[in-house]
Design goal:
9 strands; elongated; Alpha-Beta Plaits; 3 domains; 5-stranded antiparallel sheet; alpha+beta; 375 residues
Length: 375
């Protein structure tokens, strides 16, 4: 279909609107640089194709067809005026990176008969890129068969969630119950080498860092670690003393230069005793403008469906001069969700996407049979 539309636009329509097109396409390359009228006509064709046809005809048609094909109850208005409107900047920028240079080559240098084969080759590359960006269903049918599987997916592709499912969050206390575990939280004035000093002290005293997260916030340093060790062979007190010594400020700074370190022993929690042979997991990955309330609203939504948040990461990035807020959440529940609950989660997350103008919004609801942990 795309090839037919492109042929109609590139050959019959452009040939009539720009009568000099055929003559210009037959000129030798050197002569084309001297033909001002033909060059202006070619530039106008590029502008119509890239700044009118693709943004306002091609992409709306793509989102409409995708909505009709992948949804039992399609909402074309939402697909075009909400989903595409949110993705427009990213979609059109990606399109121009590929199509703008190839279209310039087509209209300025190629004869008419070669334009469609040239566009077909470009379309092959573009289809791969577009499939990676916007392929897959934004809300597939519930699959509630026994065993491990996917209940709902929204976003780019099934593969993303199938791969991530093996990474469902299980904390080290559950994975290694025969070891002792402690958390280490450290904060203070940031300085070079502090992560190296603390992690080295843990390693040298017999500890193993299993989970860690660190951020520099302004002039402050904040870090969280989970450390596992053999309680029969390793002295927890010796490890704590070594870490506090490593975290002490350099000479001359006094207490102001010290990194404040707090240790807390970890034990199994009662919620580790599962009530069902299945576990349901929810994975959220959203990106959008930084706005107050995003974390609170998504956390509230997960709480209302009975999920416990196992892991949450949020951070800001700057891309092309624009600030973007990223939120990644893994949550779990010890029961199976009904189809009505799945539908409600889809509706709530879609509403939050519109509320916060999120340009990326992946939501997966997965379940599998529980695998017994090592005793």
């Amino acid at each position: 279909m795309l090839g037919g539309v492109q042929y109609t636009l590139y050959v019959p329509i452009f040939s009539r609107v720009f009568p000099h097109t055929v003559a210009f396409s037959k000129l030798p390359w050197r002569s084309k640089f001297k033909d001002l009228k033909g060059g202006l006509g070619a530039a106008a064709q590029v502008c119509i194709d890239q700044f009118l046809y693709h943004p306002f005809m091609y992409f709306p048609a793509f989102y409409t067809i995708k909505e009709l094909v992948t949804k039992d109850y399609p909402d074309v208005y939402n697909a075009v005026f909400v989903e595409y409107a949110g993705n427009m900047r990213e979609d059109v920028t990606a399109l121009w990176k590929i199509w703008l240079p190839t279209t310039c080559i087509s209209f300025f240098f190629l004869p008419l008969w070669l334009r469609i084969p040239w566009s077909a080759c470009t379309s092959l590359v573009w289809t791969i890129v577009l499939s990676g960006m916007r392929g897959g269903s934004d809300g597939g049918q519930p699959v509630l068969e026994d065993g491990e599987g996917l209940a709902v997916i929204s976003g780019k592709s099934l593969n993303l969630f199938e791969a991530d499912w093996e990474d469902t969050h299980i904390d080290p206390v559950d994975m290694d119950p025969h070891l002792a575990h402690t958390t280490l939280t450290a904060s203070g004035l940031d300085r070079k080498g502090i992560v190296k000093l603390i992690s080295q002290a843990i390693h040298e005293t017999g500890g193993n860092v299993t989970v860690s997260k660190m951020n520099r916030l302004g002039n402050q340093f904040v870090m969280m670690m989970t450390v596992s060790f053999d309680g029969d062979k390793v002295s927890k007190r010796s490890m704590e003393n070594a870490v506090r010594k490593a975290a002490a400020g350099p000479p001359g700074m006094g207490k102001d230069g010290d990194i404040q370190v707090i240790f807390n022993s970890l034990k199994h929690r009662s919620t580790a005793r599962r009530q069902s042979e299945f576990v349901t997991g929810i994975k959220l990955k959203v990106t959008g403008p930084c706005a107050p309330g995003i974390v609170a609203d998504f956390a509230t939504m997960l709480h209302n469906v009975g999920c416990n948040i196992e892991r949450l990461d949020s951070y800001n990035k700057v891309k092309s001069g624009q600030r973007h807020f990223h939120l990644h959440v893994d949550a779990g529940a010890d029961r199976e969700f009904s189809e009505m609950e799945i539908k409600a989660i889809k509706e709530q997350t879609s509403a939050l996407r519109v509320k916060y103008n999120l340009h990326k919004h992946d939501v997966g609801i997965l379940r599998r049979k529980r695998v017994a942990l090592n005793a």
